[in-house]
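Support reply, case 0932

Customer input (verbatim):
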Amino acid sequence: MSETVQDAIQKEIIINAPQQKVYEAITDPAKIVAWFPDAIEGTLKAGDSPILDFGEHGKNQIYVETATPYEYFSYRWIPGSKHFIGNVLDETNTLVEFVLEAVENGTKVTLKESGFATLPADVREQKFADNNGGWDYMLGRLNTLMADQG
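Our regenerated output:
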């Protein structure tokens, strides 16, 4: 009997803010800490490997793949990892993508995290479940932040 493994999480949210402001909230180290990590060491430019500090949940190094202003941002990380510091590309990882599109009410943000099927079998389901709920929470925080800046 074969087991079907979900490989990707996909979420969409409409944020009542211009595309540029939403992009900056996702990619500016001074702004991302208002909704995602507690702190960041480094920058979020393509090719960079900053460390995201989630306080009691640990520090995680990421690898920024692509940063196309106002439209697309992606990075790789070890999902659900606590205290992963090292070269993410040397480990089994997932790709997190933010696609931003201008819409009548502001900006549609499509978040996709893919690669769960490549994770070790003993952790993939739990990491998928944790991140699925985690992204709902974090995108809600991003939406609240942008509404408060309105």
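We compared this against your earlier run and they match. Two observations from our side: The longest strand covers residues 94-103. Helices lie at 19-27, 29-32, 124-149. Please reopen the case if you see a mismatch on your end.
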